[in-house]
Amino acid sequence: TSGLDVTMVSLDATSDALLNREQAEKIRALGTPPAVLVADMIGQRLDASEKALGKSEGKIVGAALRDPLAVCAVAHPEVLTDVWDTSCHVDLGRGMAYGETVLGRNYRLVEDENRQPVDLPVNCHYARRADAELFFSWLYGILENDLKKREENRV
To answer: Could you report the per-residue pLDDT of 3-13, keeping only the tens digit for each?
Structure first.
């Protein structure tokens, strides 16, 4: 292991922090180029979700912005909830899981000096859930602060 303190923000976590059209329009109303870009990204993701899942009732349609959630987690680790400490590795064994990121599934791939299986070391924080309200508040706050700085620079 690298010895680094690694947190993995899972697809499950980003699916908890889905953004909707109302939020996109609130962001768009800020009117700055970055805000419009983010609103457009959310809209594009929503359009793709609706196309894939349809607009029928009961289906969760939302925009998952995966990288921004990971960045938010650096500044605000509390945005990630239900975090497990687990082993994490990329399978390079040429088997069925070759190339996959494998998390704490009780694999015993390491052997001790007597060739007995040993649990893999815990080397990763794995985030399974996220706080959607905190994520949106952070994202909007960043874009709102940008607007304020632009206004100050015009004076």
So the answer is: 889 999 999 99
